[in-house]
Amino acid sequence: MFKKKRNLISASLLLLFTVATITASWWLPVLPSEMDSAKRLIGPSADHWFGTDHFGRDILAQTVVAARVSLVVGLSVALISTVLGTITGLIAGYYKRADFVIMRIIDGMLAFPSLLLALALVAALGGSVSNIIIALSFSFWPVMTRIVRSAVLQINSIQYVEAAKTSGIGDLVILFRYVLPNVLSPIIVQGTFIFAKAILAEAALSFLGVGVEPSTPTWGNMLQEAQIYISIAPWFSIFPGIAIVITVLTLNILGDGLRDSFDPHAKGKVNRKKGRLKKQINVA
Amino acid sequence: MLQYTIRRLFSIIPVMLIVSVIVFLIVHLTPGNPAYLILGEDGSPEAIAQLEEQLGLDKSMAIQFVDWIKNILVGDLGQSIYSSEPVIQVIMERVGPTFSLMITAMSLTLIIAIPTAVFIVWRRNTILDPLFTSASLLGASIPEFWFAMLLVLGLGVAVPIFPVAGYVPIDVGLGDWIYHLILPAFVLASVEIGLIARMLRDGMLESVNQDYTKTARAKGVRESVVLMKHVLSNALIPTTTVIGVMIAGLLGGTVIIETIFTIPGIGQLLIDSIHRRDYPVIQGVVLFIAVVYVFVNLLIDLLYAFLDPRIRYD
């Protein structure tokens, strides 16, 4: 029951963040781009809850609007790497010959720490929202392939798939009708985690100055600018960071909760473990 | 063991081939002419042509790739466009700070993660365990660079205990070296501590009720001894494999941490080279990190097979 509630709460929070950032121009009292040179680097107050930045812009408004890029990048990367990873994972898990080739490529890609691979790609493609989406999708895709492949390998040997194969049903039908629905839960769980990781990675790239153009408000860009003023205007560094933590934490809690509710075995394991522990205490 | 070692060594070949293709493609993925991009608008047609020749861009892709592979095999990673020095030399000059940072971060991770896991398992039926699980989830949600900024704010600006920037080589003084590394290494370690401690905890919980631990308890062995001698030692073996994942995290993290704490390592070199569009250095650093990572993983696998004979015959 608690798990279900937890998933519902985190999913609703995400929806709330999305709606809030999309509709920001209707409810924000100040425009995020509005500059006021008389109010530069002013601490949090009734007028500016999160304070102002070095151009006198409202940090709350900036933080809310910056969520757009983060959510768009996170969601797109999650979707693209999930689709790519699912297709390659299905093929690798189902066809033995393709498996060898695909997995060697995946192993090679996994030889790069994912942030490094993204950095190298952004260095080549140039920094923009779409290039960052491409670079991050490419870096997170191999992990998804591995997960889908190992799930397919487990399903492959189950009797109903064997039965479908012997009854002469086409491979595509088997893959999409019998295999895919049974490997969906690890895909969804991993997709949620990729969403979270992509938001962190985009922020890191922008912070390093190789991400989204500095003129676009993103959390990473804001923090990069804030770094210089950290000793005189700490609020400038604190609030965008909190926004990242809350969003990513919500996604991680959702992913964790989804994993628990999709996987009855995992739940059983936990319960059994607890049971065993309890028994042991009684004995002691 | 010998057979396993040979098999594992051969498995590196396809991985390294893919790695080199990806690194090679970095230059060729750039939209437009890389030579023009590197020199910018001031580049005269002659200079562009000369750079094209230096980078080998005037030849066909296939020939360029073969040449490139031949060169890396003899350790020639090309020449930096920015400093005109050989790339391998530029990288080697920067390796010291990065490895110092990584070794300090790894030590910190193990020093903190192992006792934490033992303590959590020892007090497994208290509020500590769920608290720890939540804390590790929160830890995975905090951007490293932001955590670094907060620490700089707290321990560098508000209560100045640690230096917030710079690096002191080890031969200048061991104390100074460590003193400058503590803060950045702690940030780098913070993400990994949660991961490793959680892996260890899970592994220890698996064996905490195995027959051999029960026997030990029945013999009257104290719980602390059971945990340290029987439970921890068994959980440590599978954890060696996570060290590979940890090193990947650390290698990626150094890029960010070195930039924030102005440590002149290969991470900072990479970022500087991206800003300067110094493609040979970018390729060199990326290749170097990937090679280090592949070989560290190889060593870990061999170590694992050595510690746990079952792996060799799998």
CATH level 1 class label of chain A: Mainly Alpha
Number of helices of chain B: 13
The major pleated sheet of chain B works out as: none
| Low-pLDDT regions of chain A | 267-284
Integer count of domains of chain B: 2
* Mean pLDDT score of chain B: 86
Give the low-pLDDT segments of chain B.
Answer: none
Q: If you consult CATH, what is the topology of the largest domain in chain B?
A: MetI-like fold
End-to-end CA span of chain A: 31 Å
**Overall geometric form of chain A:** elongated
Count of helix runs of chain A:
11
Radius of gyration of chain A over alpha carbons?
23 Å
Structural class by secondary-structure content of chain A:
mainly alpha
Rg of chain B (C-alpha, Å): 24 Å
Order of helices and strands of chain B: HHHHHHHHHHHHH
Q: What is the CATH homologous superfamily assignment of the largest domain in chain B?
A: MetI-like
Give the overall shape of chain B, derived from the CA principal axes.
globular
Structural class of chain B: mainly alpha
Q: Between the first and last Cα atoms of chain B, what is the distance in angstroms?
A: 12 Å
Summarize model confidence as the mean pLDDT of chain A: 85
Beta-strand fraction estimate of chain B = under 5%
